[in-house]
Amino acid sequence: MFAAETSAATTATFSTPGAYLFQLIADDGTMSVDDLVAVFVHPEWPPRGRPIRIEAEHMLLEFHAVKDAPFASAGKYVRKFTAMTTTPTTLYTRLQLPAGNYDVVGGYFDENDGRARAELELARGDFLGEHKRLLRQEWTYDQDLAGSEPSEQTAARKHLGENVPLQPGDAMRITTLADKNEWPTVDYIEFIPKE
Ligand SMILES: [Ca+2]
Ligand SMILES: [Ca+2]
Ligand SMILES: [Ca+2]
Prior knowledge:
It contains no helices and 14 strands. The protein is an all-beta fold. The chain folds into 2 domains: 1-41, no CATH class; 48-193, Galactose-binding domain-like (Jelly Rolls, Sandwich), CATH 2.60.120.260. The model has no long low-confidence stretch (mean pLDDT 93). The chain binds calcium ion (3 copies).
């Protein structure tokens, strides 16, 4: 995967989209330092002007599992661990979208046995450090569609943001909170370029 594994400067290539954590180690025989680096790999974007989907399953997941499903966007969705009943947990990625203004739509499954909640945040910079918030939108899984599990029937879309100015490298975080028998799902976040 690395072009030159022992070189101080090298390039890495990825064959599968996803979130990767690297531990980079510099060692001269007597002393060593290391650092963790996160790399986010998304599939190639569609032609300019078309909506871009960030699949939840390609994000860095904290207490969320990836599920296979033919009815989900790109064949997979993400669901919060059932043990995380009262704990907010997150999905995270860095966006590399072409600079521009975007409407933002969330894709998920809205089951009829709970009213889970989620929050979408977009920011320039790092959430843990200095950052400028570009969007913060909460929503409730309250459409309660026909079924208590993710399926074609419970697939939902929600408009979450309008005309959000984005630059390559902006960060996206989704925080989920379960309710009753609904452990929140996220399928994708869609960015629709404005003219
Ligand atoms: Ca619901
Ligand atoms: Ca359920
Ligand atoms: Ca998906």
